[in-house]
Amino acid sequence: MEAESLKINEGMLTGESDAVEKITDPIEDEVGLGDRKNMVFSSSLVVNGRGTLVVTATGEKAEIGKIAEMIETAESKQTPLQRKLDSFSKKLGMAILLICILIFSVQVSRIWFSGADVDMTKAVLDALMFSVAIAVAAIPEALQSIVTIVLSVGTNKMAKQHAIIRRLPAVETLGSTSVICTDKTGTLTQNKMTVTETFLPGIENPFSNEKWSKSEQLLIQTAALCNDSYINEDKNEIGDPTEIALILLADKQKQPYKELREKYKRDAELPFDSERKMMSTVHEINEERMMLIKGGPDVMLDKAAFILVDGEEKELTSEWLDKLHDQNEEYSKQALRVLAFAYKKVDQDQQITLEDEKDFVMIGFTAMMDPPRDAVYGSIEEAKKAGIKPVMITGDHKTTAEAIGIQIGLMEESDVAVTGKELDNMSEQELDDMLEKISVYARVSPENKIRIVKAWQRKNQITAMTGDGVNDAPALKQADIGIGMGSGTDVAKDSAAMILTDDNFVSIVKAVSVGRTVFDNIKKSIAYLFAGNLGGAIIAIMFAVIMNWANPFTALQLLFINLVNDSLPAIALGMEKSEPDVMKRKPQKIDEGIFAGGTLKSVIIRGFLIGIAVIVSHYIGLQHSEEMGVAMAFTTLILSRTLQTFPARSNVQTVFGAGFFQNKYVLGAVGIGFVLYTITILPFARDVFHIPAEFGWNQWLIAFGLAVGSVVLMEIVKKIRNK
Questions:
Q1: Mind listing the pLDDT tens digit for each residue in 462-474?
Q2: Contact 566, 641 (CB under 8 A)
Q3: Is residue 93 part of a domain?
Q4: Which of 102, 292, 568, 597 is 20 to 30 A from 722 (CA-CA)?
Q5: What is the pLDDT of residues 543-597, one digit of tens each?
Q6: Within a 13 Å sphere around the CA of 204, how many CA atoms are in the beta-carbon half?
Q7: Which of 478, 503, 528 lies at the terminal end of a domain, its last residue?
Q8: Do 483 and 522 lie in a common domain?
Q9: DSSP letters along 506-524, please?
Q10: Among residues 474, 503, 532, which one ends one of the domains?
Q11: How many domains does the chain have?
Q12: Which residues contact 498 (CB under 8 A, 6 or more apart)?
């Protein structure tokens, strides 16, 4: 109803820190939240002026209440790895159950139809134990703990990249991300207004010469003196961001604003007013009393009568006026914030009034913006090479957002920018059709943000969302991975799975690289476990069943290998460095299996080679006795599975290509594996692990040679496959 210079900070709702000046005039068109200048919202902060209001909504019907409701109803999702492991576990369980039933049936049938005089109860129990042994050997019992440990290692690596993980599975989710919806202010940009352009009539490159003209000197003096901002003793910048940019310009040009203010004291002032859009101060400069003025270019040009051209005062002709208007328009097209500067000589005893703000001398313009972070350009390019689509979502104006998007390479030629109002007018089908072409969303509401995230998720894209305000919280929770800002609100952080301590887009891309490496390493660990289980449990045991040989392993031996010997190498693979192409390949598809990307082939090849080595060793041992066959099969399996750690380090590089000594954890795990095996053949443990006294160096060397041979063949096959 009333608004007297009423300015309100609505950052909690819109994400934009600039205060909004409120008006009482009706707004006829349907506009977004950030453009409802005749409305005041709960939880926003009054920073200036006064007003009288009519309450139109409270509680859950208020804008802040709607956000709280959206946070409650936003869906938390399983990570891609959780979905893949759940699906795979069900299939694995069914497959192993069928194999166990088949083997049990075959063994019982042989006993039943053989006609031999045997104890049927004991024979059936032996067949059952044999089947159970296969299940024990086939299922990687330590898988869950290994995955957890590898993810934990990833959190430590991400912390070094300024990314704090709040929910462990988020490490892997970030590596599978295909869309990053990011805020502009402070994430892509520096969150600091900076003067990027200066226009002084008659001077081609201002401040390029050591000796300044009168125009250059007056511009810096006006920027620093007609200004209320300052930097306190704690180096905190106090005041309007636009004015802070001006005093930083003075400091940059080696004209410290503090020295200028000390030298030229302020005698009088006309504070900034939103109606006249200018500010004036009076100072004694070079023995002349001068009124220094800054304000919006359009208002200033209407009231100016003269112009300073390379230090010389001239009449402001229509020709010069056109040049100034054209320059202002050019800056505006680049989404730059433009300020005009002027001066006017006044009498020594004159008391200045608003009537004096006319017929002044135009000095020139400064154009400023919140510039992109230096490293953002390379990060955007790297993200695109990695198959990730960066999308800017901001509460800022469309022109500004679009200009930044083009400047940093986020927007391609065919891409478009859309406002929150335009998004509201789209149907779900229209949004789905246009979604992949939209790279910038401007003037968006919290509802818009959550709708954008859901639209990408409908296309089976793993979506990351950044945010720092209360308005971002619903979308952060809805996204596959919400990324809160370290400088953001507690509500945003609580809704996020990861927090960036430096609020930097560059850190997100680096964290994606770590996430992909973690996911690769989890797959390597899983492939390592299943290749060993395939060779020992499926191939070797089933071959023994088909050939009617004795069981090559005892249940205790298999449990020892699965739970004790295999765990350390699998964890060590989780410490592996990144593959060379980690940020050059497309993200994992959401419906892609855990063994996609050549992993299944590696498991089959390595498992088959291990199985062949174990079968040959078992056969050689059986020529002596069943006990010797078991001992040799066990020795070959444990040695080949331990040595398999080296080829498991990469599906692309050989052990030497990856750097034999690069992963010291692998060397340590293999060494410990050999020590653990040595314990099983010590005299006091031989009976427990069914190792006969006759098992000696000859048998061990045969088993070791077969294990080494299988590993060498794995590397040869890998080299051939990747040619």
A1: 999 998 878 888 8
A2: yes
A3: no
A4: 568
A5: 988 888 888 888 788 888 877 888 899 999 999 999 888 898 888 887 777 888 7
A6: 1
A7: 503
A8: no
A9: HHHHHHHHHHHHHHHHHHH
A10: 503
A11: 4
A12: 158, 163, 164, 165, 166, 167, 170, 174, 481, 482, 483, 484, 511
Identify whether 62 is part of a domain. no
Note the pLDDT of residue 693. Answer: 92
The pTM for the full model equals 0.78
What is d(CA 685, CA 26) in angstroms, rounded to the nearest whole number?
89
Active-site residue set: 183
Identify the bridge partners of residue 310 per DSSP, sorted by sequence position. none
Q: Are strands 230-231 and 237-238 parallel, antiparallel or unpaired?
A: antiparallel
- 368 within 8 A of 241, measured Cβ to Cβ: no
Range of the domain at 210: 194-369
Which among 293, 221, 294, 302 is positioned nearest to 257, based on CA atoms? 221
| Type of residue at 90 | K
Instruction: End-to-end CA distance of the chain: give it in Å, rounded.
Output: 76
Looking at the fold, whether 274 and 201 belong to one and the same domain comes out as yes
The whole-angstrom separation of Cα 359 and Cα 177 is 59
CA atoms within 13 A on the CB side of 652: 8
Does residue 655 lie within any of the structural domains?
A: yes
Cβ atoms of residues 20 and 51 within 8 Å: no
| Sheet of 438-442, strand order | 163-165, 498-500, 481-485, 463-467, 179-182, 389-393, 438-442, 416-419
* Spacing of C-alpha 354 from chain mean position: 52
Give me the CATH number covering residue 582: 1.20.1110.10
